[in-house]
Amino acid sequence: MISVIMPTLWRGEHYKKMLSIFNDHPLIGEIIIIDNNPANADRSIFELIKIRHYAQVQNIYVNPAWNLGVALSEFDQICLYSDDVLFDPKCIEEAAKVCTPRGGIAGFAIETISESHQELDFLAPWEEMKITASNSMHYRFGICMFMHKQSYYKIPEQLKIYYGDAYLFDQNVIDGKTNFKIEGCPVITKMRTTSKSKELLEIIESDKREYAKINPSEGLILNMMDELEKQQ
Fold it and tell me: What is the pTM of this model?
């Protein structure tokens, strides 16, 4: 069984459909909501029987929310889910197969991810889904990830928003585990639904500096990827 963990400020939209899909799926045992903005909570989700809601006094940010959600989870397999992502649930059963203690993390291949506010692309024809080994992580990898709880490494507390996915990916490689990419499964995300206030931009810059200390070579690569994204 899988524990879905969703940190949220309630600024996404696709969660409204995705949480119902999770709630009805036989492999999903619970949906843990780490609520970083309870004043704006979407009360309609509380009708879903698998929801477990944890309101925070203040915004603890996404990486600490992942840490908290994993600590609270009851099941051995976990899905770290962003609230602005919609994907074809056919991948859940296949993803669960690679979420073993000796498996790493599984995320969506970059070519499957479409930045869109529409669900039309979600219905587009896709090739047969497959999950393959991957030693390469892309800058959208963290929008949704599957793994066994033994493949989750507590993210250092100095990383608040960015590089939590990179840390998990790299720690699994260091531990000799195989990471995976999910291909042939359509994914829609709005991306960047959290506003870029001056405070958040300062935190992101701090995350970059801190991750460069943790893994200098990977930090340089991810900085380059960020620059390329800005140019698109």
Answer: 0.89
